[in-house]
């Protein structure tokens, strides 16, 4: 991709109302644009990042037998009435009435839609388990949309739903999803805690959240410094500094954090509400056990920026960066076009700064955008290429073959 053709350009100043790091940097670097409070456009760079996050999630969920679908965003009132959530979740739902006086809601989640789909297809225990996921937009009436792309009224999410013949099978799959989530967040590069939490408008049972420690986080979590015990503030009943109630030897620490994923077990509550049933091996009608599992994909992008940046801009990991390499052409670097063509031929994702702007602006934009590897070609480098990692001050002068070999390794 030639940077002269990239839409849009970078901005020298962050929006006046921007307070969070991700808001400031993602807007300045040209990843997102704000339509209104809590509503964002993913620009080409941002869309590339979220697509890579989705690809990682997709690979890990496919490994545990989940299948991808795509469910509607506009839902009839009747389906939400079946579970009672037309009223109980009313405070976060966007509702509308069409010209035929029919009531609808915009999706804030898809439990009811999944169950409606499942009850049309499930007849016996042999049809279970099933696990379906999709990537889609969610709408939630946040009273105070803030923190950039971390807390929106409209956002992107991966949600997975599963049905099981018994509680044991649900529990086994629940922890399989937890392992898949661990793999996702490790591949992205997060340090995270799995914290016990409440169920919100989803369930009265406790759930588990995947929390990334970040100074700009809106959540507060409490974790043991010696074992895996961790809780969200909403259910925490001790104090920071207390002895861990689990291992008895560790001390409880308090951190600010960002929730990037969550998993829920509903038992048969929603299945019974919506009359989703099957016939077991003895010919007896049963209600399947239900689980729900989410990852906020656009939130993951914002969370990464909150924890991985410096005074110059964003620092992306290679696996979710919009490009692998940022090639910068400076005066005297006339062979940059040949280098660009050679890298493209090797299927290396590259942003090529071919713009007619000054050297300082090119370097500043490169640091702001945060692509992992920077290559510079100039009169000073001669027939060599300056190779530098975004998160390092070390600079190497390499031949094109050496650059290609390094990139492949």
In short:
The protein has 409 residues and is α+β, with helices and mostly antiparallel strands.
Structure, explained:
The structure is a single chain. With 409 residues, the protein is of the alpha+beta class. The chain has two domains: 299 residues, BirA Bifunctional Protein, domain 2 (2-Layer Sandwich); 84 residues, Anticodon-binding domain (Rossmann fold). Helix content is 29%, strand content 28%. The protein contains eleven helices and 21 strands. Strands 3, 7, 8, 9, 10, 11, 12, 13 and 16 form a nine-stranded mixed β-sheet that branches. β20 and β21 form a beta hairpin. α1 crosses α8 and α2 packs across α6. The longest helix has 22 residues. The radius of gyration is 24 Å and the shape is elongated.
Key structural traits:
single chain, 409 residues, alpha+beta, BirA Bifunctional Protein, domain 2, Rossmann fold, 2 domains, 9-stranded mixed sheet, 5-stranded mixed sheet, 29% helix, 28% strand, elongated
**Major sheet size, sense and barrel closure:** 9 strands, mixed
Number of domains: 2
Q: Would you tell me the structural class of the helices and strands?
A: alpha+beta
Distance between the termini: 22 Å
Kindly state the percentage of residues in helix.
25-40%
Number of helical regions: 11
Care to count the β-strands?
Answer: 21
Beta content comes to 25-35%
CATH topology of the largest domain: BirA Bifunctional Protein, domain 2
């Amino acid at each position: 991709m030639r940077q002269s053709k990239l839409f849009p350009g970078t901005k020298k100043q962050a929006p006046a109302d921007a307070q969070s790091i991700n808001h400031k940097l993602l807007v300045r670097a040209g990843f997102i644009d704000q339509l209104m409070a809590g509503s964002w456009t993913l620009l080409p760079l941002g869309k590339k990042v979220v697509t890579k996050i989705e690809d990682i999630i997709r690979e890990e969920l496919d490994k545990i037998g989940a299948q991808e679908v795509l469910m509607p965003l506009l839902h009839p009132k009747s389906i939400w009435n079946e579970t009672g959530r037309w009223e109980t979740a009313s405070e976060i739902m966007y509702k509308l009435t069409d010209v035929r006086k029919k009531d609808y809601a915009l999706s804030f989640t898809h439990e009811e839609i999944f169950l409606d789909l499942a009850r049309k297809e499930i007849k016996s225990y042999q049809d279970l388990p099933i696990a379906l996921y999709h990537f889609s937009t969610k709408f939630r009436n946040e009273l105070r949309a803030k923190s950039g792309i971390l807390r929106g009224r409209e956002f992107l999410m991966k949600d997975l739903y599963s049905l099981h013949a018994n509680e044991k099978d649900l529990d086994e799959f629940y922890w399989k999803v937890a392992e898949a989530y661990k793999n996702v967040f490790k591949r992205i590069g997060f340090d995270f805690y799995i914290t016990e939490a409440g169920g919100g408008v989803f369930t009265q049972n406790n759930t588990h959240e995947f929390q990334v420690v970040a100074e700009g986080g809106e959540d507060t979590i409490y974790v043991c410094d010696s074992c895996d015990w961790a809780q969200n503030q909403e259910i925490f009943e001790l104090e920071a500094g207390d002895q861990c109630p689990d291992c008895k030897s560790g001390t409880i620490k308090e951190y600010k954090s960002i929730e990037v994923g969550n998993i829920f077990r509903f038992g048969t509550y929603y299945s019974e509400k919506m009359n989703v049933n099957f016939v077991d091996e003895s010919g007896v009608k049963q209600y399947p056990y239900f689980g729900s599992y989410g990852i906020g994909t656009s939130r993951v992008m914002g969370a990464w920026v909150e924890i991985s940046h410096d005074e110059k801009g964003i620092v992306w990991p290679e696996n979710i960066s919009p490009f692998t390499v940022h090639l910068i052409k400076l005066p005297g670097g006339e062979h940059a076009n040949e280098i660009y063509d050679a890298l493209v031929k090797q299927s290396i994702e590259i942003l090529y700064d071919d713009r007619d702007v000054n050297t300082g602006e090119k370097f500043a934009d490169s640091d702001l955008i945060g692509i992992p590897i920077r290559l510079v070609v100039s009169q000073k480098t001669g027939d060599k290429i300056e190779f530098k990692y975004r998160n390092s001050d070390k600079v190497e002068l390499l031949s094109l073959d050496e650059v290609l070999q390094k990139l492949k390794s």
